[in-house]
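Subgroup meeting minutes
Present: P.N., E.W., G.H.
Scribe: E.W.

1. P.N. recapped why we're keeping a running log of single-chain structure predictions: easier to compare across weeks, and new members can see raw inputs and outputs side by side.
2. G.H. added today's entry (179 aa).
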Amino acid sequence: MRQGPIPGARGRVRPLTLLGDPALHTRCAEVTDFGPELALLVEDLFATMYAAQGVGLAANQIGESARVFVYDCPDDEDVRHLGHVVNPRLVKSDGLLLRGPEGCLSLPGLEAATERHDHAVVRGFTVTGEPVTVEGTGFFARCLQHECDHLDGTVYADRVSGWRHRRLLRQAERSEWSR
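Output recorded in log:
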């Protein structure tokens, strides 16, 4: 049984920022005000992520330059991880370096084999300013690294090289959303 409100239930679905928008390649600003506007942003992030059927979403993906992301993501054992992190810092990414399929709501319909570590630890704060540490393995570790990258102005396409990178950019240029 649920112990609290459903994340995003009070949020509004916002338009997604797509590849090519400079916001995706700009480092987001640290959050200094842990007031009601931040709580509304987190609600909007959840609502938008769920509407787009994603597992994670960073603030710059809806046009906000704030260091915050949300997630509702399984790990490799299908354990659900649900939450948000404000001012996250990726403090550890280790274990095996695996190349696996990765997609992004800012590059809809596309994916590419991207290298990520299979263990990650993120430290930050909750929407109320309480310290939080989030640890993930497998797919959830990939999600944590991906969302932290977004807030630093990096998209997964920047981590792909060679022919994979060229193919991904060609696919993006041909996609309906890039026109």
